[in-house]
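Regression test case RT-17, inverse folding.

Input:
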């Protein structure tokens, strides 16, 4: 059984350190946690996610290794169980003759579609790919289905609409940016052309983008300017016509010229607002060096909230439970666990967990970390925090967690895993107690006390 959507958690998410902001009084919070390790350093490849039964998996396809060189571009693919992080499987190599970078992956039902990318040949020349591979997550194998992109593409925006259609937007084709929306229907195995950007909008490669509901959000990326490829701040929103999904109404949203981003992740908060996290201010080649200056670049220590305009937040630590965690750049792709719901009394809110795999850290180090990015709900936090002050120690933990309430009513407390399943129930009558996570698998859990309206994100090492 594949669990895709509609996982219900009966609690509020709170108690996450705040993200200091530079340009607004809005309380805006995220939680970033390390949940697993890749078997080798990975960047510039495709990433996807699926839940099968009670297990959640991250898949990585192709990319480049720690050398950040053309000789390090490969076809290797892995499946990492983030519910049980020690469970890693080497998959069949990408069914191609050469390795590729700047490709993307998206899941529709039980299949993952790995799209495009480009080859780098020994003489340094590059060529965009028109290949699309279909991967069966139930059989852990590539199918023989023949899928070919109408226009070869790399470094594009890619996402899925209503678990049915795959949207490939803009990107780079051999020697130029592409102003094109390619839409794939896996049921009919046919392509259609969606409404492209209008003439006033700037097509880019390496932009951050995704689909949420019937809306497409795209920000940043690099444009072609006499081979300088400057990064830009442009922010666009597209509305998909649900009756005619190839029809997209595009809007140009307000942007600040200084808020540039390149190869960053797009995530969504509890109010369904998109934000850009990680990446870099400037554009660069696959070796992490600036296209213009050749300098080795470092990750962007900032998040960018996209609402009707752009708000930036400049706390470099972001709200890590582990202060050693850093958000990487070169986030070509990510996995999303969508539409998880928090419900308590008459209040409810949906959110998504975004998983980043690998990427490039400071000094050109290629990461092996898989990180989770979880949003918080500021208005709910303020309400809940007035009810009781509660401490949890230690977090992260290997085994015992000590809990202390300032005020407490007897309650049946539940511990959920990251897929929404209850893994333990605690009947508590005292304000101070301990519980044991020794037998839990490593990963992210949620402590839920509906009576006292307390919730806490827990990390088991």
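Golden output:
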């Amino acid at each position: 059984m594949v669990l895709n959507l509609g996982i219900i958690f009966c609690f509020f998410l709170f108690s996450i350190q705040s993200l200091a902001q530079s340009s607004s009084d809005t309380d805006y919070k995220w939680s970033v946690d390390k949940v697993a390790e890749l078997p080798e350093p990975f960047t510039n490849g495709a990433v996807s996610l699926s839940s099968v039964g009670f297990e959640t998996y991250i898949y990585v396809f192709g990319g480049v290794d720690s050398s950040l060189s053309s000789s390090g571009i490969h076809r290797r693919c892995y499946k990492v169980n983030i519910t049980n992080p020690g469970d890693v499987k080497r998959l069949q190599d990408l069914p191609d003759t050469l390795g590729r970078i700047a490709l993307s992956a998206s899941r529709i039902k039980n299949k993952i579609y790995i799209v495009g990318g480009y080859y780098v040949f020994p003489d340094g020349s590059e060529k965009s790919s028109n290949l699309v591979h279909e991967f069966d997550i139930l059989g852990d194998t590539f199918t023989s289905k023949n899928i070919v992109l109408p226009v070869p593409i790399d470094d594009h925006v890619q996402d899925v609409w209503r678990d049915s259609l795959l949207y490939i937007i803009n990107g780079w084709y051999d020697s130029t940016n592409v102003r094109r929306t390619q839409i794939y229907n896996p049921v009919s195995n046919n392509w259609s052309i969606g409404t492209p950007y209008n003439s006033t909008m700037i097509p880019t490669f390496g932009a951050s983008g995704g689909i949420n509901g019937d809306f497409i959000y795209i920000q940043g990326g690099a444009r072609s300017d006499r081979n300088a490829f400057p990064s830009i701040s442009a922010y666009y929103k597209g509305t998909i016509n649900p009756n005619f999904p190839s029809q997209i109404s595009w809007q140009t949203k307000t942007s600040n010229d200084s808020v540039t981003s390149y190869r960053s992740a797009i995530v969504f908060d509890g109010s369904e607002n998109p934000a850009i996290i990680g990446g870099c201010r400037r554009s660069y080649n696959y070796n992490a060096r600036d296209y213009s200056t050749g300098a080795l670049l470092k990750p962007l220590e900032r998040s960018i909230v996209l609402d009707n305009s752009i708000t930036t937040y400049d706390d470099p630590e972001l709200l890590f439970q582990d202060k050693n965690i850093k958000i990487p750049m070169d986030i070509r792709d990510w996995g999303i666990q969508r539409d998880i719901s928090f419900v308590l009394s008459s209040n409810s809110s949906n959110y998504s967990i975004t998983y980043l795999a690998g990427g490039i850290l400071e000094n050109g180090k290629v990461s092996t970390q898989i990180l989770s990015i979880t949003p918080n709900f500021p208005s709910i936090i303020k309400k809940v925090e007035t009810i009781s002050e509660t401490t949890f120690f230690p977090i992260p933990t290997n085994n015992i967690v000590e809990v202390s309430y300032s005020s407490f009513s007897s309650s049946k407390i539940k511990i959920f895993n990251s897929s929404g399943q209850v893994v333990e129930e605690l009947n508590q009558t005292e304000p101070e107690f301990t519980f044991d996570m020794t037998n839990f698998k490593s990963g992210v859990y949620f402590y839920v006390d509906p009576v006292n309206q307390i919730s806490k994100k827990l990390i088991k090492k």
